Recover the amino acids of this structure.
């Protein structure tokens, strides 16, 4: 996933940043200077619905709080940021498919 | 809204974002649930569901929308917008139908008015549930495609596959059992009264002790009325379609016979409802017969609610969502016992009611309503001789033929005057162009002078006299006709 972001010209700042409240999967700096917080959802099948359907309003709010927490611990409050979600669908032969949606929360 | 259809345009926006599905445009509960039906139906039809932010808007947005009939249209709008189905060009099309979770297309109410409205607004093609296909026979100049599943619509657009051609089912009415006048023993007087009422479109009151055949008579009334014209059957089917009655198609719609129970409420009688204003009993009886058994038992308010439709031939209902009118041009048949215990008449054995009770009982049918009833007869219990008769009564078909001939006579007479039936002759015309013979008029004026008839009563008697005159194929009502009309109006008094 981090490779995918790098290949798009982003600089990955942090992986699996963890605090008591939860975890941010990826933090990256986009080519235009926007800080991206990325929530990655992985599923091996769509039997239980689309991966992104698992993000409900509570989860969205937590991501929002975590993003602010990250910004304040890194003294970057006030910087432009966005929250992205990525759905990763893996199949048994190791291949995977990334459905990336930027700035959706 | 009522019988008037509104065309609803459905717009779909599919955007990036957390997968969601929003429905806009004042949907009610059934329509809100449409989201889950549509989603399941698309997925279970093996079509692609966009796992993105889907916004569906039903416009015009200010109109409250209800029911499940938009399901198919919403599903199609989504399939078009995601590119699952692509079309280069297609005629203006509407989609009507409820979706099952498996993608089945289910019947909805009000298909016929919707199709009529669509055609009036230049729609050329319609997809409708195959169960409702029967209703569509009445609509011309519209390419109607009945379907039974969402997959069939997909097949149509992607492979040009037409669903199985429509089998023109000539369904019969739910109450297919047609009752015939021949079942009745005797009752010559009542038979004649029904026939006259059928000719002139006169409202009718049948009074008599229990078990004399009032209900039997009334139930057979539609069988002697002329068949519905094409235009009339269109109106009747449209009303019944809105009411959710899967009504029969084709040519042979019988006249409706609606018999609400005497505990019926006013909204059930004239129509009502919160989200959808449904037609009431008197609209369902449009072009047919509204039969109220035990009329004095009905609450007076409900009976009086019939006065407006009796006067204008339509009902106007106002609710929070708006005001609508339904046609309600029916023949009213009231049946009543002469007193609470029912035995105050004829041989009068064992009536246990007090004089006051008897008087009060019939007063429950209010004066203004009674005034609109031209023919009031007393139905006597069949006599011993009549019951022993082994020959059947006259068949309905024979009576109907006479009614049709007589109606043709009156229609010819009123050609270009704006009304068709004798009961509709305006008072002004009665005084000028449609008087009876001189001696007959003298007779009526005598009655008027003696205070036995009101001025309005004179007009009523004259109208019935015209029907009697049509029945015997006369050209002007004679003294005899007027006499008979008088007796049809006041035989109650004699009977009591």
């Amino acid at each position: 996933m981090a490779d995918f972001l790098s290949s798009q010209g982003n600089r990955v700042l942090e992986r699996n940043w963890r605090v008591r409240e939860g975890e941010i999967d990826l933090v990256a700096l986009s080519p235009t200077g926007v800080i991206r917080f990325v929530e990655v959802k992985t599923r091996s099948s769509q039997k239980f619905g689309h991966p992104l359907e698992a993000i409900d309003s509570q989860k969205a709010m937590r991501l929002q709080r975590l993003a602010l927490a990250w910004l304040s611990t890194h003294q970057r409050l006030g910087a432009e940021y966005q929250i992205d979600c990525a759905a990763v669908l893996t199949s048994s032969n190791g291949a995977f498919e990334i459905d990336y949606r930027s700035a959706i929360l | 809204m009522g019988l008037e259809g509104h065309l609803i345009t459905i717009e779909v926006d599919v955007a990036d974002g957390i997968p969601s599905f929003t429905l806009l445009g004042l949907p009610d509960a059934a329509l809100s649930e449409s989201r889950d039906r549509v989603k399941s139906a698309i997925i279970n039809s093996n079509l692609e569901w966009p796992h993105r932010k889907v916004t569906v808007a039903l416009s015009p947005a200010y109109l409250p929308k209800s029911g499940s009939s938009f399901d198919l249209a919403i599903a199609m709008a989504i399939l078009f917008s995601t590119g699952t189905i692509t079309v280069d060009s297609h005629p203006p099309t509407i989609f009507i139908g409820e979706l099952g979770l498996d993608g089945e297309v289910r019947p909805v109410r009000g298909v016929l008015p919707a199709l009529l409205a669509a055609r009036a607004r230049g729609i050329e093609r319609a997809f409708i549930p195959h169960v409702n296909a029967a209703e569509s026979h009445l609509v011309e100049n519209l390419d109607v495609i009945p379907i039974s599943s969402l997959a069939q619509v997909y097949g149509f657009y992607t492979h040009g596959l037409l669903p199985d051609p429509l089998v023109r089912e000539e369904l019969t009415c739910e109450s297919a059992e047609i009752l015939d006048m021949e079942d009745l023993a005797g009752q010559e007087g009542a038979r004649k009264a029904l026939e006259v009422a059928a000719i002139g479109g006169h409202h009718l009151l049948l009074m008599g002790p229990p078990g004399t055949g009032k209900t039997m008579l009334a139930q057979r009334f539609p069988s002697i009325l002329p068949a519905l014209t094409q235009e009339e059957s269109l109106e009747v089917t449209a009303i019944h379609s809105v009411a959710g009655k899967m009504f029969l198609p084709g040519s042979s719609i019988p006249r409706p016979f609606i018999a609400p129970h005497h505990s019926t409420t006013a909204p059930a009688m004239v129509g009502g409802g919160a989200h959808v204003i449904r037609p009431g009993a008197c609209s369902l009886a449009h072009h047919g017969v509204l039969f109220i058994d035990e009329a004095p038992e009905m609450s007076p308010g409900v009976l009086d609610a019939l006065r407006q439709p009796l006067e204008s031939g339509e009902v106007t209902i106002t609710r929070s969502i708006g005001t609508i009118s339904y046609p309600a041009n029916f023949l009213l048949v009231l049946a009543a016992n002469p007193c609470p215990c029912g035995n105050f008449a004829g041989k009068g054995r064992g009536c246990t009611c007090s004089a006051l009770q008897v008087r009060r009982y019939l007063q429950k049918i209010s004066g203004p309503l009674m005034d609109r009833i031209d023919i009031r007869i007393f139905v006597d219990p069949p006599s011993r001789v009549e019951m022993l008769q082994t020959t059947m009564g006259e068949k309905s078909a024979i009576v109907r033929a006479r009614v049709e001939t007589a109606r043709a006579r009156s229609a010819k007479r009123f050609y270009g005057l704006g009304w068709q039936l004798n009961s509709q002759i305006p008072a002004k015309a009665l005084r000028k162009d449609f008087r009876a013979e001189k001696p007959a008029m003298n007779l009526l004026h005598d009655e008027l002078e003696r205070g036995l008839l009101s001025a309005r009563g004179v007009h009523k008697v004259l109208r019935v006299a015209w029907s009697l005159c049509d029945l015997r194929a006369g050209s002007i009502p004679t003294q005899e006709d007027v006499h008979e009309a008088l007796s049809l109006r006041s035989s109650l008094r004699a009977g009591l």
Summary: Chain A has one domain: 2-101.
